[in-house]
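Table S4 entry, GIY-YIG nuclease family protein.
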Amino acid sequence: MRNYFTYITTNNYRTTLYIGMTNDIQTRLGQHYFDSQNAKKSFAGKYNCIYLVYYEVFDNPKDAIAREKQLKKWRRDKKNKLISASNPKWETLNYEVF
């Protein structure tokens, strides 16, 4: 059985959010980091959104995609509340997910 993740990353100052979906979150976070240090071609790379601050796990990819689309439509204050509810200090969770 495979896990699918909807996730939110941010930059060092917590001013920019990136919302994505993946089935391999560690690899994806590595790609964001690599792009932030090199080409800066993606949104996450350009704005250095390499710090995982929120994620949800799904069994079904369609559910993860639907949640990603839902979160992307939210206003910033609603996204902030979602993150703060499970991660009040907005700590980096990159090493929490395997």
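The CA atoms of residues 15 and 90 lie 11 Å apart.
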